[in-house]
Design brief:
The chain is α+β, with helices and mostly antiparallel strands. It has one domain (2-191): Alpha-ketoglutarate-dependent dioxygenase AlkB-like (Jelly Rolls), CATH 2.60.120. It is 14% helix and 32% strand. It contains two helices and twelve strands; from the N terminus they run E-H-E-E-E-H-E-E-E-E-E-E-E-E. The protein has helices at 10-26, 78-87; strands spanning 2-4, 44-49, 52-56, 59-63, 96-102, 108-111, 123-129, 132-136, 146-150, 155-158, 167-172, 185-191. The strands form three sheets. Strands 1-10-7-12-5-2 form a six-stranded antiparallel sheet, covered by helices on one side. Strands 6-11-8-9 form a four-stranded antiparallel sheet, with no helix packed on it. It has a two-stranded antiparallel ribbon with strand order 3-4. A hairpin with a 2-residue loop joins strand 3 and strand 4. The longest helix is centred in the first third of the chain and has 17 residues, at 10-26. The protein is globular and about 35 Å long. Bound molecules: N-(carboxycarbonyl)-S-(naphthalen-2-ylmethyl)-L-cysteine (MD3) and fe (iii) ion. Residues 98, 100, 108, 113, 123, 125, 132, 156, 158, 162-163, 165, 167, 169, 187, 189 line the site of N-(carboxycarbonyl)-S-(naphthalen-2-ylmethyl)-L-cysteine.
């Protein structure tokens, strides 16, 4: 894993936020539910790109359209593609940008990201807004974990062994950033889903 604290300055964060508001106006946040149980996630989500990650009673998957509007996801804005281009060292564009919004008490349990075909490509994560307590483990469940605070403007690159590491968000520290007027946290994850070649 590569951790780039304060990679984005305030004006770069504000540009991404403006682009994100336009995208979310077209593809509103939805509340995913767990496969099988239909228990709602505390995190709300949307996507940009040719493919977006969704979860419903039937399972987790990538699909080309919004689960409620059934319209194609908005494109990934240049302000966000620029981050991938600067940090990924990967010769193909990302296909998916998952938008995770954490309000109030939202968190995300420990999990692996394995719904992609291509584990060779890195995952690039951008944090905006309130600071989160991020937990990173190894590639097997139940091993030791380490904690890291992810603040607004921080970028994380998951590649190699870390690409399949267990990870989650234990909590968000309310009032820790002034970027979002109503507080909360946004995490963007840029991914390659299909194998390029
Ligand atoms: C480690 N998001 O969307 S970002 C996710 O802050 C996700 O919303 C969290 O886990 C969030 O799947 C964590 C940091 C991150 C993203 C992807 C990873 C860490 C990762 C993929 C593999 C290993
Ligand atoms: Fe994840």
């Amino acid at each position: 894993m590569r951790y780039l604290p304060e990679f984005l300055d305030r004006s770069a964060q504000e540009q991404i936020l403006r682009d994100l508001r336009e995208a979310v106006a077209r593809a509103p946040l939805f509340t995913p539910v767990m496969p099988g149980t239909a228990k709602p996630f505390s995190v709300r989500m949307s996507n940009m790109g040719v493919l977006g990650w969704v979860s419903d009673k039937a399972g987790y998957r990538y699909q080309a359209s919004h689960p409620e509007l059934l319209t194609p996801w908005p494109g990934i804005p240049e302000s966000i593609l620029a981050v991938w281009n600067r940090v990924s060292n990967y010769p193909h564009a990302p296909e998916a940008c998952l938008v995770n919004f954490y309000g109030g008490e939202a968190k995300m349990g420990l999990h692996q990201d394995r719904d992609e075909e291509d584990f060779e490509a890195p995952v690039v994560s951008i944090s905006l807004g309130d600071t989160a307590l991020f937990r990173l483990g190894g590639t097997t469940r139940g091993g030791k974990t380490q904690s890291l605070k992810l603040a607004s403007g921080d970028v994380l690159i998951l590649e190699g062994q870390s690409r399949l590491a267990f990870h989650g968000i234990d909590r968000v520290i309310g009032g820790s950033s002034t970027l979002l007027k109503d507080g909360g946290r946004i995490n963007l994850t840029l991914r390659r889903v299909t194998k390029s070649l």
